[in-house]
Model the fold of this input.
Amino acid sequence: MTRTVPPTGLTNWSGNHHYVAPRFHEPTTVDELVGLITGSTTVKILGTRHAFNDIADTDGDLVSLAGLPTDIAINDTAATVTLTGAVTYGMLAPVLHEAGWALPNLASLPHVGVAGAVATGTHGSGDAIGSLATAVSGIEILTGDGEVVELDRGTGAFRGAVVNLGAFGAVVRLTLDLIPTFDVAQYVFEGLPFDDLLDDLDAVTGAGYSVSLFTTWDGDTIPRVLVKSVGDAVPTVAGTTPATESLGPAWTTQLGEPGPWSERLAHFRLDSTPSVGEEIQSEYLVDRADAVAAIRAVRALTERVTPLLYATEIRTVAASDLWLDPAYGRDSVAIHFTWKRDQQAVLAVLPSIEAALAPFAPRPHWGKLFTLEAAQLTPRYDKLADFRWMADYFDPRGKFRNDYLRRTVFGA
Done:
């Protein structure tokens, strides 16, 4: 049966967003989910609560997927896996590895839900690796009138429906393409001179299968470079010193010890508190061709940015053809900020960062904190007008619309 939970005090994972929804539901069957959606005037679907803004909030019925079945079905012949909307990467990855399969990449946290990560354009890192949404080959969306719409790569609406921001309905099932399982070894390098990075960004980000750079922007060096390597070759990063200690117990195993992709591609262990635990996150993706200039622009704000930071992570993402993927149509570099949980101070500095990056048409991560609105975002997405049309088609009564979508997509 559906459990209706009082919304008092309900927050996102890090505690920086308090949900305003007056009603909160946690159905335990798909039939109950259908009943809640068709019976609501305004509704929003809630995943694992890892968004840092109000993308999943509503002034109506907030419906969590946490109580629904977590089915995972592998098709070895097609090299695909089909999973329900409640499945997290932490549930999925070990099952795939045990069966001899893998995904090309994972987010930093295995704790996040697959459907929510896909819907917001979440990504890992790697010059040749697209966002997590690029693995999707099929999607099933439960619309406001109770109909399940099935789309695949051969369907015209598919590219607009994958990174969907929750605007079309509830994602009840996804199909992902698989590759054979593989091992990964992680290496940490210390003290990369900023000048070396800016002189040859490609050499640094190409040092491994996946590369992440961690900085607080002050000083002349980037303190740590994390390289995830595939194969027998030991990577090197010119100008750095190999670390002799791991980044910490919450992180997945490092120092060159190989292990399954399912235990190495995410930064943080499933059985640990990921990242800081109490934080705010923002992220902006720019065209890779503009990355050096964008990094310089943010570095010029060091005096304002550094005191509020736990760390910035710089990563790369390959271009995709998914309409609202922040890496749509361009190989991208992502500049990610893990902020101390001071919402007022962070909101005060974000416009300065967005202004500094404005010449490079930055696209924010849809699930993280930013102040850009529809008027600024529309020219940065060639297909945003088409996305609006699709949202009206899938959800003609605006049942899944909320303040976030009105502010960032529809401009009203």
The longest strand covers residues 183-193. The chain is about 20% helix and 25% strand. The radius of gyration is 20 Å.
